[in-house]
Design goal:
12 helices; 19 strands; alpha/beta; eight-stranded mixed beta sheet; six-stranded mixed beta sheet; single chain; 440 residues; globular
């Protein structure tokens, strides 16, 4: 199920990024201790009153550094209109309604999308009269907020969640493995899709996806049903889509959210670049099962060490995804292609695996006996009990005497022990620490 998308638009310096950071809050804390993850703060996940949504800060989308400012704002607004279910139109109380604001308002008005006007820099009650002129846009009651003080953010989130559409169920049975291919342009995603579908004994039927623009292709292989989620937006042509690489990240996010397994496609000929890390980081943050697919392996000059060396490079660059297996293949020649789907099937199973509580506790008890937790200021962490509370990804809660004493390195040690004991390949594991009294 894809979360609905909220986009923040507006001219420069009205505080879009500050409001964006306020809305996503500490959602990114889950990955802060993971080495090597590169985060692009354009896209985040928010939740309010039990309603999750994705949020885009269009201020982070630099269309073209040489462009005039208004042209750039217009293009960012076009992207938001294209992508979003709800648009937050940010204005600035101090400068009032400007010509640029009027132009953006015109575009948003024509879009027919739900629009909420948020007027930033209303830093105290005495300034609330500054929002009245923004009623003129005709989008209903403007909401006064302060990015620097955090006031009005709750009201803004109330307005957003009121306008969000309901989560759509994609209609596939639970035993269907949803597979998304992500990667920067020219790594060979399309040819890989064609190669997977072009194999003999594959039954293909084209069905329009439930999510806007996505083309889903269900197929069956060796008795297992799959659906390939193709980021159809990548095929769009036009300046606005070609001039921003970050747009392709937004598209990838949509596909990742609906997937069970994410194939991070890397160009074997070119090697790994920073953009690959950004894209893989999103799959990690979304908690999806993942594997690396090194494509174009047919054109790489190699000896008996080449594959091992490339895999080592992947491990060095993607320290936060050491659990993800690596498959080397060529979509063009279909060399090693037969190895891909069995790995996809395996990591999908690990991602959905549930471990019995007594087995989990046996493994953790042994781990603690072998390496007891270190003391902190004379106090030692005591691990009382572990239970699995969710799958996709496997999520464990560890009940302890004091969560403050759980150092992230010890948490990682426990994760590695659990991973080794139950062969959790290809899936992240989430571990949350709670005080024992929270159990009841």
């Amino acid at each position: 199920m894809a979360r609905p998308v909220v986009a923040i638009v507006g001219r420069p310096n009205v505080g879009k990024s500050t409001i964006f950071n306020r809305v996503i809050g500490d959602r990114l804390a889950i990955v802060e201790d993971k080495p090597g993850i590169t985060r692009d703060r354009i896209y985040g996940i928010g939740e309010w009153n039990g309603k999750p949504f994705s949020i885009i800060d269009t201020g982070g989308i630099e269309i073209d550094g040489t462009d005039e400012i208004m042209k750039s704002i217009r293009m960012q607004a076009e992207l938001a209109i294209e992508e979003a279910d709800v648009i937050v139109f940010m204005c600035d109380a101090k400068s009032g309604v400007t010509q640029s604001d009027e132009e953006v308002a015109q575009m948003l008005y024509k879009s027919g999308k739900p629009v909420i006007v948020a007027v930033n820099k209303v830093d105290n009650i005495g300034r609330s009269d500054l929002i009245y002129e923004f009623y003129g846009f005709g989008f209903g009651d403007p909401i006064g907020v302060s990015g620097s003080h955090g006031t009005g953010i709750g009201d803004l989130l109330d307005a957003i969640t009121e306008k969000l559409p309901e989560l759509e169920d994609d209609g596939y049975d639970d035993d269907v493995i949803r597979v998304a291919l992500i990667g920067r342009p020219n790594v060979g995603k399309s040819s890989l899709v064609n190669a997977i579908l072009g194999e003999e004994r594959v039954i293909v039927s084209d069905v329009a996806g439930t999510t806007r623009d996505a083309i889903d292709t269900p197929f069956e292989k060796d008795g297992q049903r799959y659906v390939l989620i193709d980021t159809a937006g990548m095929r769009k042509r036009g300046k606005v889509y070609e001039t921003t690489e970050k747009y392709s990240v937004m598209r990838a996010m949509r596909a990742i959210e609906r997937a069970d397994v994410v194939l991070v496609v890397i160009n074997g000929e070119e090697g790994i670049i920073e953009q690959d890390k950004h894209i893989a980081g999103y799959a990690y943050e979304a908690g999806k099962a993942s594997l690396f697919v090194v494509n174009k392996w047919d054109v790489v000059e190699k000896d008996d060490k080449t594959m091992k060396e490339f895999e080592t490079k992947i491990r060095d660059h993607f320290l936060f995804m050491t659990y993800a297996p690596v498959v080397f293949l060529s979509a063009k020649t279909k060399q090693r292609l037969h190895k891909l789907l069995p790995v996809v099937q395996n990591v999908a199973q690990q991602h959905a695996m549930r471990i019995q509580t007594h087995l989990l506790n046996d493994v953790v008890s042994d781990a603690v006996a072998i390496t007891p937790p270190p003391t902190d200021k004379g106090r030692r962490l005591r691990v009382n009990y572990v239970t699995q509370v969710a799958v996709k990804p496997p999520t464990m809660v560890v009940f302890v005497n004091d969560p403050e004493l759980m150092h992230f390195s010890y948490e990682r040690y426990l994760e590695n022990k659990i991973r080794a004991a139950f062969n959790f390949e290809g899936t992240p594991i989430r571990i949350f620490t709670r005080r024992k009294s929270d159990e009841s």
